[in-house]
Amino acid sequence: MALKHHPDKQASLILAEATEEAKQAKKDEIESHFKAIQEAYEVLIDPTKRRIFDSTDEFDDDIPTDCAPQDFYKVFGPAFMRNGRWSVNQTIPSLGDDATPVEEVDKFYNFWYNFKSWREFPHADEYDLEQAESREHKRWMERQNAKLQEKAKKVEYARVRTLVDNAYKKDPRIQRRKEEEKAEKQRRKEAKYLAKKMQEEEAAKAAEEERKRKEEEAKRAAEAALNQKKLKEKEKKLLRKEKTRLRNLVAPVVAESHFSLSEDDVETACSSLDMERLKKLCDSMENKDTTEKARLLRGALSKEGSSGTSNEGKKIQANGVDGSKAKSTSSGEKVTQGNTLSNYEKKEEKPWGREEIELLRKAIQKYPKGTSRRWEVVSEFIGTGRSVEEILKATKTVLLQKPDSTKAFDSFLEKRKPAPSIASPLSVRTETVGLPTEKASGDASSKAPAQPASSKTSDEKAPAPAPVSNGTPSGTADPEAWSEAQVLALVQALKAFPKDASQRWERVAAAVPGKTMVQCKKKVAEMQKNFRSKKGAE
Fold this sequence. Notes:
ribosome binding; DnaJ_domain_CS; 66% helix; J_dom_sf; ZUO1-like_ZHD; Hsp70 protein binding
């Protein structure tokens, strides 16, 4: 076609024209026709341009919305066939008819719900890429055109989705399946309800039967208890009757005291004999004389006594056997315990002395952990023949023991240094009695004649000095005053007897000479107060 309509091939048509103007017009017509052929060819060979060209064809975009059930296939069938031309996958399933299987119907709707269209939407506002001034301008045009295309495709997919939704709602096959599913669901619900109701009825029936059974059992038990009670009452009544009968039969015997029988013997027989034996005894006494009745009663009492004695003898014998077994067992246990105690005494270790404990402490400090053959070396250092096992045990027991607090006071008194003696300047004192002062003598001489003063001669001995306690004269000492020796003794006693020591303040007071427990407590409180005040001042 290009060769046929090429302008060079159409030169004869141009020359056939008479005038120049006609020739020029013919030439323009031939060239425009050839250009149209070229443009059409370019569109046909380019898939994108061809898709765009095909998309510009006139197309009915109307979507059916409602129809009668019998017209469903006539209305929606052509609509699906018409829109199927835009599908990328050209294997388009058919809508079918009323006899189409449900599986084929599901495939049809799955295809259209996943529909992909190749339709292009050339927009009037699109940019012509051939008119781009630069590469960046062309890319910007492409982005703008892509946005317009995306928007148009969304509208197209919404239109197709509306078509599929309308068809799915009006499809009689889908409606029948929904009704069947609804009916099946209702049927299962009713069956479940009936099964539950039947189960509840069976449970109620079983509960009612169980209740009736329990009532029957309770009724039978009550009747049995009542019959048993009546039977016991009857037996008691018969027993009372037989006892009364026996008493009446042996009344002459008791009155005449045959065989030394008394009313107590009769009551013993009534209480010890059971119903059958009592009835048998009464029957044997009928129509008998008094002596025979007494003999029968004595025989019954003696027989009852012998049977009771034999039973008691059996019990005592059984208890005796058990007692002998218990005694033998206890003696065996004692022997076993004695052997165990003797073995324990044999295995008892030799106690550790104070010197051994001190040597053990020194050895542990001298030979620390990591020493080669440490415990053998420690045993040799102690030198008392202690084994390694004894030394290991002593490190966990003897060395961890706290010192005895009861002996702490004795050790304190032994280690305490004697209090230093303080020489008092008042150890020797000379007293002069009756020597008036000069002023006094002057006054006396002016008022009266002087009297001879009586004074002790130098040969007389001076009075003995007052006793000194802890360096303080007792005659002039303050009981609340503390000497240095007493304070030192108090401090040492507080160190020797800590707070957790038993009878602490009694021992502290005993260690401080001349002071009571109350004075020691008061002094300690005063010392603590002075210490806090000094510390606060610093």
